[in-house]
Amino acid sequence: MRKSQQKGSAGAAVLDAETEAEVRPGGAFRRPPADAVIPRREIVDEFSDDEDTEAFLRASGRNRRLRRGLIPKTRNGWIAAGVGVALVLAAVGVACYGALSFVTTSEIFRVTSSQQIELVNNNHLSRAQMLSVFGEDVDRNIFHVPLEQRRQQLEQMPWVERATVMRLLPNRLRVQVTERVPVAYLRQGGNIGLIDASGVVLDIPPDAAGNANYTFPVVTGIKATDEADSRRQRMALYSAFMKDMDSDGKGSTSQISEVDLSDPEDVKALIPYNNQEVLVHFGVQGFLTRFHAFQQHIAEWRTTYPRLSGVDMRYERQVVLQMPPKDSTVPGASDSTNAATATATVKPAAKPAAQPVKPVAAAVARTAPPAAKSVAKPATHEAPHSEVAHAVKPAAHETAHAAASHKAAEDAKQAATRKRVEAIKAWMAKREKARSGN
To answer: How far apart are CA 273 and CA 269, in angstroms?
Structure first.
C-alpha cells in the first residue's frame, strides 16, 4: 500500500514497493517491523515547474550551463560569429559613408548666395568689406567652408578686434564681430585718423563728423609704422592721463585739444586759453594736480608774458615758462637757437585737510630742449622785465650764402608747420561745430 502526506510546501514521501507491508493470505496485512528504515527520495523532477524550485536552481547555480551556450564551442562557431560581426561593421560603415556623401554633396547644404551669410555688430565695417572675406564660399557646401581661416582673416581687418564664424544648418553662415573702440583722433602730418586704446590705427568712418561719441582730443607723436608694442605703451600712458584728468568728475579732458605722446616720459597737451593754445608739460604722473595749478596761475602768467606759448609743470616748486621766437607766428614752434624761457615760482597745490601739502609735480608740453631749461634760474614773477632772456647770435664765420640757405630752410619749415596747424585747427573747428549742433 502506498501512502502519501503533504502539508504546506513540505515535500511528500512515499513508501518504496520493497518496504510495503506484506499482504497476508486472505487479504490481511502484516505490519512492518518497528525498527525498519523507510528510505525517502526527493521528487524534484516531478515538480520542476514550481516557482520555488526555479528560485532554488538559480540560487544554487545549476542552470549556469544555459548561459555558456552563447559562446561558440567549435571552430566553425567562431568563424560564423566573426563573419556576423564583420557584416554588422560593414553595414555601419556603409551607412556612415552614405550619410557623409549626402551632406557634402547635396544641394540642401550649399551656400547659393551672399544673402545666406548673416553679419552681426558690424557698425563701422560695411557689408561689402566683410563679405570680401567670404567671396570663395558662395556656391560652396557649408561643410567645406574653413571657419577658422575665415575668422583669422576677419581679425586682420583694422576695425575688427574679435570675430566668430559659425554654421547654421542647412546652408547659412553667421558672422559676429566685436569692433574696436576709438579713443582719440590721430594726426600724422596732414593726415587725420583714429586710434584705439591698443594703439591700432583706424580710418575715420563717414559718420565721424556728426557722431557725438567722437569728441575726444587729437593725439600726435604716434605713427602707423611704429612697432605695435611702442604704440600700445604710448596709448596706455594716454589712457592713464585721460582717466586721471577726469577723476574729479568735472570733465577736465574737454578742455584739452591735443595730446603729444612723442616723449614716453612727458605727456604734453595743448590747452586753449583766450583763443590761443598753451602747450603744458605734465610728465608721467600727478596730471590732475598739475592741471589745477596751471588753471590757478595761467591768468597771472599770461598778464606778465602776453606771448606765453608753453608751461613746463614737471619741476618742484617752480615752472618753466616758454615764449616763441619773435619771428614765429605758430605757438609752440620754438627753436633751440632762438627760444626764450623764463622761470616762475609756484606755490604747492592745496590738498585736502587730511593730507599734507605737497609741491606741484611735473607736466608735459612742446617746449625748448632740456639744455635751455637747465640754465634757467628760479625767480619770482616780478624779476624778469622782458619776455626774452637772451638770443643767440649767428656765428661770425658763417658766410652770407649759408645764412641765406639756413633762413630759406627755416622759412620752409615754418610754412609747413603753419599749414599743418591750420589743417588741424580747421578739423577741430568742424568737430566743435558738429558737437554744438548735437
So the answer is: 13
